[in-house]
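Observation: inputs received (chain + magnesium ion).
Thought: call the complex predictor directly.
Action: predict_structure
Action Input:
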Amino acid sequence: MSSLSFTNVTLEYPDGNSTLKALDSVHLSVARGEFLSLVGPSGSGKSSLLAVAATLVQPTSGVVMIDGDDLYALDERRRTALRREKVGIIFQQPNLLPSLTAVEQLLVRGHLRGRPAHEGRRKAEELLDTVGLSGVLNKRPHQLSGGQRQRVNIARALMGSPSVLLVDEPTAALDHERSESIVRLLRRITDEFATATVMVTHDTEFLPLTDSVATMRDGRLSRAAVPSGQPN
Ligand code: ADP
Ligand code: MG
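Observation:
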């Protein structure tokens, strides 16, 4: 079953006297446990697609579904609840709060509101362990490397047990070695948590670590074959 689907989705922005189609009749279906790479030139609509899937920007027309729910047919309150429970968002800049430790970064969103505090803390510690950070649980952002900060960001996105992970250029600020380990981590998380993962990337060398590739051009999406070869 697909966790995330777009049917004939168009997103228009006003552009002077005319309109700009950031998304133009997009069809997309991403299954549980599928890791999709989204590539394409700058300005082609990749981040717009993620924003629409993240319930952050309402499309002009079309239907977006997550686990069978029609996102933009829900009222605002239910859409926000669905985002919190089912969508993990990982953008290029980790946006961690400077004064908080790694564990605390995962607790502030309040995903486990109403549950005992130690449960949230235990879950946060488990997720930080999953992303390889068990040694730095109580470190603050300035004490972490760029790669470690991005791992905190990834762990934080998993706090709500998402079925969809939306990742925008997660390696843009990292060197090659750290970039590869982040993409490998996202591969492992997609397998272990059975998320439908969409990753915008410019690092074409990592495409073989993903299951499928879609290309955006002027708001139009097409599926491409996954290149084979290194690394795998
Ligand atoms: P990409 O992520 O592929 O670089 P974007 O999705 O950010 O592309 O942008 C797609 C197009 O939509 C671009 O032409 C961009 O200028 C335009 N766009 C994006 N966000 C807005 C906005 N909030 N208002 C107006 N135009 C926008
Ligand atoms: Mg972008």
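Thought: report the result.
Final Answer: Residues 176-193 form the longest helix (18 residues). Residues 2-224 form a domain with the Rossmann fold fold (CATH 3.40.50.300).
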